[in-house]
Fold this protein.
Amino acid sequence: MDKIVISISTLVDAPLETVWQKWTNPTDIVQWNHASEDWHTTKAENDLRVGGKFLSRMEAKDGSFGFDFIGIYNQIIENELIAYSLEDDRKVNIQFSKTDKGIQVTEIFEAETENAPELQEAGWQCILNNFKKYVETK
């Protein structure tokens, strides 16, 4: 069965170095990494190197559910590209591109099979929108 690949993006009005730092710093990640206001990231760890591992603990604020989002980095090009594999071997690429209007952040990821692709796209886009808002208001 062919994997479904989803692409989402946003334009962030901030310097490239700031965008990269806020994307990769665990102290920042816990501030923006949630799809809705009733969720939050309670812990983030990030070993930003090829072969390094990252973890984000995502939980419902009411304590009803939580999960670890874990991956291993396959490729890192500072201020340009992050590529990783999730625990279930799905691949994710994040590209950071300078434009005249800011930094284009594009995430391309393989969909999982439990939830509809549209739901996954919406959830990941909400997280990316939160990232944009966080960076632009800091």
